Automatic annotation (TrEMBL):
Keywords: Amino-acid biosynthesis, Cytoplasm, Diaminopimelate biosynthesis, Lysine biosynthesis, NAD, NADP, Oxidoreductase
List of residues binding (S)-2,3,4,5-tetrahydrodipicolinate: 140, 149-150
InterPro entries, sorted: DapB_C, DapB_N, DapB_N_CS, DHDPR_bac, NAD(P)-bd_dom_sf
Domain Dihydrodipicolinate reductase N-terminal residues, every copy: 5-112
Protein name as it appears in the record: 4-hydroxy-tetrahydrodipicolinate reductase
Binding, NAD(+): 11-16, 39, 79-81, 109-112
Job description of the protein: Catalyzes the conversion of 4-hydroxy-tetrahydrodipicolinate (HTPA) to tetrahydrodipicolinate.
Its EC number(s): 1.17.1.8
Superkingdom, taxonomy of origin: Bacteria
Amino acid sequence: MGNDIRVSVVGAQGRMGSSVVSALAAAEGMTPALAVTADDDLGVVTPDNTDVAVEFTVPDATLGNVLKLVEQGVSVVVGTTGWDDGKLSQVRKALEKRSGPGSQSVFIAPNFAISAVLADVFAAKAAPYFTSAEVIELHHPDKLDAPSGTAIHTARAIASSRGQARCASMPDGTQGNTASRGQVVDGVHVHAVRLEGLNAHEEVLLGNAGEQLVIRADSFDRSSFMPGVLLAVRKIASGDYPGLTVGLDTFLDL
């Protein structure tokens, strides 16, 4: 117990946060520290009681929470989506101000499910070999953001891979009202479905003349995210990843 990683959960009252609390209680080498809800003062989470904080709240609150925790000297694993380049830049600057021996870490994951991370990697590798690629993400109706952070991350990975391979722009002869074509992320169309009965699902469709490749990842239960969360906590607690790290693939031998 003395060498256990002390982990506090910010957003412990939420669906994901409560699942993380349960996973930590069952995990070897980890000790649940504080369970922080929306009504609590985030200032209670300090290096005196926490080695790593896990943040699962809502997109409107997550940046402020992360910056506050960094200011207080606590490393953070973040599962809340809604991050963009501007917000990531603010986190990097906050970490740089506190750099030094034993410097802090912030890890942000668009998705903690191993299946989703692998689908993202596979899609990026396959994208240069196809003329067209589109992303469809499907979630429960209570999800606050659309498209999902995972889908945006996937689209950016596809676009980056195609750009490095100097692929031509993807064909799209749509005219008139193009709203049904979904959000365009770096040239890749992304479609969001919100349907009762779903949890978290993503399809990447890649097409050539006469052929199609479909890469699909399905998370049927929140338990699918917990191995990824625990892996990230262990990696960040090790001190081997100072600064900002984005993407669970960083910790996988891919």
